[in-house]
Amino acid sequence: MRSSSDRILTTHAGSLPRTPELLAANAARQTGEAPAGFADLLAGEVTDLVRRQVEAGIDVVGDGEYGKAMSSPVDYGAWWSYSFQRTGGLEIIDDASWATADVQSAPGDTRLTGFLHRRDRALFADAYADPTSGIFTGDPKASPFPSCTGPLTYTGQDAIAADIANLTAALERTGAEEGFLTALSPGSASRITNRYYASEEEFVYAWADVLREEYRAIIDAGLVLQIDDPSIAENFDQITPEPSVEDYAAFTRLRVEALNYALRDLPEDRIRFHLCWGSWHGPHTTDIAMADIVSTMLQINAGAYSFEAGNVRHEHEWKVWQDVELPEGKLILPGVVSHATNVVEHPELVADRIERFAAGVGRERVVASTDCGLGGRIHPQIAWAKLETLAQGARIASERLWG
Q1: Average confidence (pLDDT) over 30-54
Q2: 333 beta partners
Q3: Which end of the chain has the lower number of beta carbons within 10 A, N or C?
Q4: Which residues does the UniProt record annotate as the domain Cobalamin-independent methionine synthase MetE C-terminal/archaeal (predicted)?
């Protein structure tokens, strides 16, 4: 992966806004076969997207997760629901177990509950239920996730091959030096109902075997692999009562070990890991602190770590890097513009945020990024303005840091 050897480089966390044409095509795909010419449409859209990233000043570009079907301008889940179309052994069950499940975890009586039982959601129930509040995400029971009803197998070979081909072609056509593709982690993938495997550990490791195929394909193609894994931090909000930090670290260890198993023998310097507390626009008052999760994150065998640092719930946590030593040769990709607000950050603020991290870990080890994916979270016009101000702030910081 490129490092900021002579200036602060820029990237983003993955998802970017889809065009109306791509949204319409994805909607048609949900009702049956892909519309005629879809493959060419997708390839062209990815090239146009990469070109626009380059023009906005983004150095390490992605495909915007365009190969992960999203059929609505607002979508918080395409980053992981894509895996349902690429995995055998899954089936839609006509109940709400995925949303309300109470799964025995470890240690003690710690339990991971379903998406409807978040502690943040319970504290702000009226706001979450109010369609005018800005955090209403619809009725989760309306779009049930599948359950695992048989042995998991990877069936996404054609889909990942298309993702790779589209981004590779876009890099060649635009002259972009480096590109990344995102893929789901075993820990996040396993947050559906298991009706087949005998234990939670067996289920998580089955996902690790499945997703490793996608990881290897991306790296073998010469691209950077980004692991999307909000579960590492976000699961904390789904455990009731609130666990101790020690118990949560023990609960999370299985997810980390399974991910490292899936990444075994793959080059760390081609892997970046994305941690976040969930991209929905809620209060997030029950998020685990970065100081309590950073050591767990650093156990993951990746060469770079992407995390939220621009939203108002976590911005103050840049101070963590005054006390935590980043392992030799690794990078951080802090979010310095946020998906959680429509306010476009000023370039001077972006520069200030970058400089704080540079003071903690060294300027060469900071690549400026976004908190989370911008696609499906904020209006496209605002998303692109945020990418432009990200690049402007990086230029200001570079002038200050290199003189």
Answers
A1: 92
A2: 306
A3: C
A4: 199-387
